[in-house]
Amino acid sequence: MADKITVSGFRHFFQTERGAVQATGTIDMTMRAGEFVTLVGPSGCGKTTLLKAIAGFIRPSEGKILCDGRTITSPGRERGVVFQELAILPWRTVRRNIAHGLEIARVPKAQRDATVDRLIDLIGLNGFEDRYPHELSGGMRQRVAVARTWAAEPEVILMDEPFAAVDAMTRLTLQEELARLCATTHKTVFFITHSVDEAVFLADRVLVMTKRPGTIKAELAVPRPQAGGRDWDSFTADPLMQKIVGEVMHLVHAERVT
Amino acid sequence: MTSAIAAVRSALPFAALIGVWWGIKDVTGVPDTMLAAPPAVWNAFVVLLTHGILAEYAAASLRMIGLSALISFLIGVPLGFAVGTNRYAARALEGTLRFVQGISGIAWLPLAILWFGFTGATTLTIVIYTLIVPIIFNTMTGVRAIPENYTLALRSLGAGRLRIMWDVYLPGALPSIVVGMRLGMGYGWRALIASEMLVRQGGLGDLIFGARTFGQIDRIMVGMIVIGTLYIVVDRLLVAPIEALTLQRWGVLRR
Question: Given an 8 Å threshold on Cβ–Cβ distance, is B156 in contact with A81?
Fold first, then answer.
């Protein structure tokens, strides 16, 4: 499959009052169309900086980032982003949040409603269409954030620890739902996480970063066990998966920030 | 029934205030040229009301505060947005804005009178000046308190500048804008009365200052009571409900 995202020679510095601070080491990576790539690494290694550069929120200090062979210079609707929290608008109902991207794209109301209904079904928020975010649990809010991004039909989805602020039980459900969603929609996904289990569970390929200034120190392919997504029961029972988790854990462990 | 009790309850302190006033007048025997008794003030009120004088002066004040509020809103909110969305402008202007806030509107009166003479333009300038600073300040603060993720997320949904302004900044900053309006109305109302006293071109300030010239203590006191009452009416019946509505609709929704 063709490369969807190409990062070559990327390096980034932040300008602060006390001079430039190096946010990342030199990073090269690619994502093929339809691939689910997860990125694990210690805090402050530059994971989010890389994601923001791919999203087009920041211009790389060095190197180039391409989407379908074209240099990324700004955010675009072909690259959707899901944040850890504080992303859906508190003054919009669930329905209007999910429909926001379609509203911006001037999709007619009937078509918008159909898409939103389908997604609400998919994320199991039936009956909550007209609720406001503060009336929902953290897990529900993240479901809405994911649905809003999916509704806009981007080709690439960038997720920055989207389930980190959700309780552990809900997180397992959300991960399974995401795996199922991806299996049916074939999006190219870039997913940042601190959790090794999560990284291996979701990925076609796991990238491991070094500590700050981070570079990619290893990548591991994760063979998908079955076509229809995955679930935690079979994942934990699969010795191959557990072996990969062990390997990634070992790589991450060496980068602990002490 | 309960609303009747509530009305009595909120009227009680005012009744007490009148009682204290009357008591002081009776006990100390202050002459009528210094302090008028409640019945005299009531009579003056009836006279001013029936002759349409009170309505005319009050209407002038209300028109002026209304016009000032409208202009301040139309200029102050966009200005607050412009400053609030620009980190450098915000940093540069924050100190200046506080400095300017320290110079009360009344302190501008000498200059304004030199520039515009004893006209409504002077009062309008002073009141707008007083009203607009809290509006700019609160709009700016409101915009800056909006989480960056809201705008980033919208940009990656394909939203342009105008869209973000309309869908994120305006609703996000609305509770702050309303608070700024309410503060501004309070400051503006006081500056208005002060300016009217000097400019003497109508308004309640003009009414009470004019009454002083003829030693009409009762009229001065009617004017003062009307000034306070109108402020409560404007604040409680107009501004507070809008604030409650936006806070209920937006403020609480914020996490």
Answer: yes
Q: Do B157 and A90 touch (CB under 8 A)?
A: no
Q: Which residue does chain A place closest to B255, by CA atoms?
A: A134
- Please return the burial class of B100, using the count of CB atoms within 10 Å of its CB with bins 0-12, 13-18 and 19+: middle
Query: How many residues make up chain A in this entry?
Result: 258
> What is the pLDDT confidence band of residue A257, given thresholds at 50, 70 and 90?
low
Burial (Cβ within 10 Å: 0-12, 13-18, ≥19) of residue B10: exposed
Q: Hey, what amino acid is at B176?
A: S
The answer on B139 and B14 residing in a single domain is no
Q: Are B118 and B24 part of one and the same domain? A: no
Q: Classify residue B14 by its DSSP letter.
A: H
Q: Is B153 on the interface with A (CB under 8 A)?
A: yes
Instruction: Establish whether this prediction's ipTM goes over 0.85.
Output: yes
Provide the pLDDT for residue A229: 59
Q: In terms of domains, do B9 and B51 share one?
A: no
Question: Residue B49 pLDDT more than 70?
Answer: yes
Would an 8 Å CB–CB cutoff place A87 in contact with chain B?
Answer: yes
Q: Which two tokens stand for residue B182?
A: 């309410």
Domain of B94, CATH number, reads 1.10.3720.10
Q: Could you give the CA distance from residue B85 to residue B133 in angstroms, rounded to a whole number?
A: 17
Domain shared by B15 and B115, yes or no: no
**Does the distance separating the beta carbons of B249 and A81 come in below 8 Å?**
no
The one-letter code for the residue type at A127 is G
Q: Is the pTM of this model over 0.90?
A: no
Pair (B136, B188) in one structural domain: yes
Tell me which residue range forms the domain holding B139. Answer: 37-254
Whether residues B190 and B97 fall in one domain? yes
In terms of domains, do B26 and B89 share one?
no
User: Is the minimum CB–CB distance between B31 and chain A shorter than 8 Å?
Assistant: no
3-state SS assignment for residue B81: helix
Asked if B25 and B72 sit in the same domain, the reply is no
Q: Is the pLDDT of residue A227 over 70?
A: no
Helix (H, G, I), strand (E, B) or coil at A20: strand
Count of domains observed in chain B: 2
Nearest-Å Rg of the Cα atoms of chain B is: 22
